[in-house]
Amino acid sequence: MAQQRHAIPPPLKTEEDYIPYPSVHEVLGREGPFPLILLPQFGGYWIEGTNHQLSGAPDSPPTPVPGTRVKLEGNHTAKIYRKHFLGKEHFNYYSLDPVLGHLVFSLKYDEQEHLHLLLRTRARTLHDVVPISCLAEFPNVVQMAKLVCEDVNVDRFYPVLYPKASRLILAFDEHVLSNHFKFGVIYQKLGQTSEEELFGTTEESPAFTEFLDVLGQRVQLRDFKGFRGGLDVTHGQTGSESVYCHFRDKEIMFHVSTKLPYTEGDAQQLQRKRHIGNDIVAIVFQDENTPFVPDMIASNFLHAFVVVQLEQGGTQGTLYKVSVTARDDVPFFGPPLPDPAVFRKGPEFQEFLLTKLINAEYACYRAEKFAKLEERTRAALLETLHEELQARSQAMLGLGPDDERPDNGGAAPGFFESFKSLLVPGSRRGRRGSAIGLGSVEEALLVPGKSPSRRRPGPLGSRRSSAIGIESIQEAPAGRDGSAAADGSSSTHSSPESHRIPDRAEKPEPPDFSRSSSSASSFGSAAEEPGEPGRESRSPSGSHRDAFTDTPWLDDPPGTPPGRRVPDPPCPEIKIQLEQPLHNPGS
């Protein structure tokens, strides 16, 4: 029983493991100097640059050596396709792995007999360079993909045939790269220890103004043409000016707390927090020695802070002490701070500071919150790229989106659809084909001086013509024999030469044009154009019959024998003049 019991999970924190970080108020109650940054009570952040004590010659504070270029970090894998593949002979493929998901694979064989392999999955992009001399034989595409990622489990890769595929692939690879950045700038005065106090400052000290000049140049927001970083450049609702910088082909807009609109009566100053709270990295400038605690500002986006404090250098000029803090899940980013972390004002300090800010944002993207968001975005974009490459490649082969089948032969679906429309029962062509199978419609309905294909336009024209044509074929033999038909209501047989159409809802009747219950003639009478007078005539048996009144296929009954005329009707109506049809021995 004791083995079946579930172990009680250990407590999250014990008194021995708890680090009693002092609060900012406790620290301010002690003697200075105070550190630039204090960790929150429950931790969750790391700090870089805690030593600011100058040692050695006071005239030479440690600062980046003039002429040295600090390195910008970032996603260098995203630049590989542009650097090694774009504009050079290479091949692109796509496939779908049951575990890895959508795959887009690029390979290039260079003059040094190296294979450059670039495999994109929904989780990451893998790159490798493999010398051909290390391989026993030249691999196929699946084997090449396994050289980059052993987890690939597909039977084949499909070649990309779209000429502009490189543009689509390049756009996917570089979607993580950006040349626009926005950073918050918070002014912390002496003794300010809360968010409301930080955002409630309206005036700027000369030291803070001087520091803003180090970051960039002041610009008027109205009609500003550069990167605005979410600020209003039309109506001035986010202030009249800001600080902007163009650094290494990148545009940086700073959200300065004192330059954003101040709202009277709003303790939280939401107009200011709305911009700075949505930034990922922020600078905190301290006039005097007051520690900054990262959790002073409640934000789900702010992950890293660069704290700069003025150090009066006297004859050495303006000096700045720098410390950096970030959340625990943010990896370390360069350039590393010197020891001690003290800088002299100048272009080297500006370059170091801006590089540190940009690298901080790139590092924050790898934190858990942003990494999950990036993974979902990447998976959606890769699926879109895969579908686009597949559709474009099939279109180049003349295939539809779902027609990549070996039995299709690559023919366009339009041809098969057109061919099947000739065979589908119920279509216009299908009905005409049925009539042709029973006898030639053109021969049965041929009238001198009339075209058999001429029809009157109307919503029921095609259906009406088909019905008339079929009935005329059935009744043509009786007209050739010249026998008088009996009344349709009492007749129980039809001519042996007539053919019955399946699913035809009419009663068996003699092959005569004059019928009182013919569905074809009644339909023809009902489908007449409004305003056309109907005509009645009598059959030899004395029964009334409906005559075809100006049908689109014939004017005279084709079954009337030569020389025989239909009796004149008793009513004063237009008489029908019958003409002798053309003699056709095969009809």
From TrEMBL:
Q: Which InterPro entries match?
A: Rap/Ran-GAP_sf, Rap/Ran_GAP_dom, Rap1_Ran_GAP
Q: Which UniProt keywords apply?
A: GTPase activation
| GO BP terms | regulation of small GTPase mediated signal transduction
Q: Where is the composition biased (Basic and acidic residues)?
A: 496-512, 532-548
GO MF term set: GTPase activator activity
Does DNA-binding appear among the keywords? no
The record, for Pfam families, names: Rap-GAP_dimer, Rap_GAP
Gene Ontology annotations for the cellular component aspect, listed alphabetically: cytoplasm; membrane
Question: For the Rap-GAP domain, which residue ranges apply?
Answer: 169-385
Compositionally biased residues, Low complexity: 476-495, 513-528
Q: Which domain of life is it from?
A: Eukaryota
Cite the residue spans of the region called Disordered.
447-587
Give the protein's function: GTPase activator for the nuclear Ras-related regulatory protein RAP-1A (KREV-1), converting it to the putatively inactive GDP-bound state.
Q: What PANTHER family does the record tag this protein with?
A: RAP GTPASE-ACTIVATING PROTEIN, RAP1 GTPASE-ACTIVATING PROTEIN 1
Name of protein: RAP1 GTPase activating protein
Organism the protein comes from: Cyanoderma ruficeps (rufous-capped babbler)
